[in-house]
Amino acid sequence: MQDSSLHRFISSVRAGWGPLSTSLVEDCQAQLAQLLEADPAEPWLAALRQNKPVNEELYRDPDHGFVLLAHTENEGLYRPPHDHGRGWVIYAMQHGEIEMGTYGRVEDADGIRLVKRNTTLVRLGQVQVYLPGDIHDTRCVSKSALLFRFTDRDLRVEDRQEHRVTRYQARNGVWTLAGQ
């Protein structure tokens, strides 16, 4: 295997992989932070910066199931509030800025609605973690952004096949369950 920051990231995460825990999340965060310091001349990163893929899978672990993706987003792209089902995610900003909001889910006699907790501006070199059940939205606020999305599982399966991802939509200025 060729020596690169991407291969070192994969090897390190594989070596420390286990059940979801504080130490696993901290280790993956640290490994992603190191990956963000990769030399832009490394072929895999140079290609991402040149090609600006909307969604490119960089690695899928055949034994543990974790996935590393690269996303290029353009200014104004907004992804409404959602969770990742049973999955957990770490976003790592390689270039640009993304605004990420977090929400609490409130259930009462009037139904289900979201209450916004805060907004974080994720910049170059920063990472942001969302654990199972965490609800967030994203908005690209720079001309373009390149981010890595590390997930503990294939979220397409979690969403499209197992229907565990919850999405929300705005109704009369309130975020409620989508499709209801």
CATH topology label: Jelly Rolls
Order of helices and strands: HHHEEEEEEEEEHEE
Number of strands: 11
- The average pLDDT score comes to 93
Helix content: 10-25%
* C-alpha Rg (nearest Å): 17 Å
Q: Can you give a write-up of this model?
A:
It is a single chain. With 180 residues, the protein is α+β, with helices and mostly antiparallel strands. It has a single domain (5-177), classed as Jelly Rolls. It is 23% helix and 41% strand. A five-stranded antiparallel β-sheet has the order 1-2-9-4-7, covered by helices on one side. The longest helix is centred in the N-terminal third of the chain and has 14 residues, at 22-35.
Layout of SSEs?
Elements: H1 5-16, H2 22-35, H3 43-51, E1 56-60, E2 67-74, E3 78-82, E4 89-95, E5 98-108, E6 111-122, E7 127-130, E8 135-140, E9 144-151, H4 155-161, E10 168-171, E11 174-177
Antiparallel strand pairs: 1-2, 2-9, 3-8, 4-7, 4-9, 5-6, 5-8, 10-11
Keywords:
single chain; 180 residues; alpha+beta; Jelly Rolls; five-stranded antiparallel β-sheet; four-stranded antiparallel β-sheet; 4 helices; 11 strands; globular
Task: Provide a concise account of the structure shown.
The protein is an alpha+beta fold and 180 residues long. Helix content is 23%, strand content 41%.
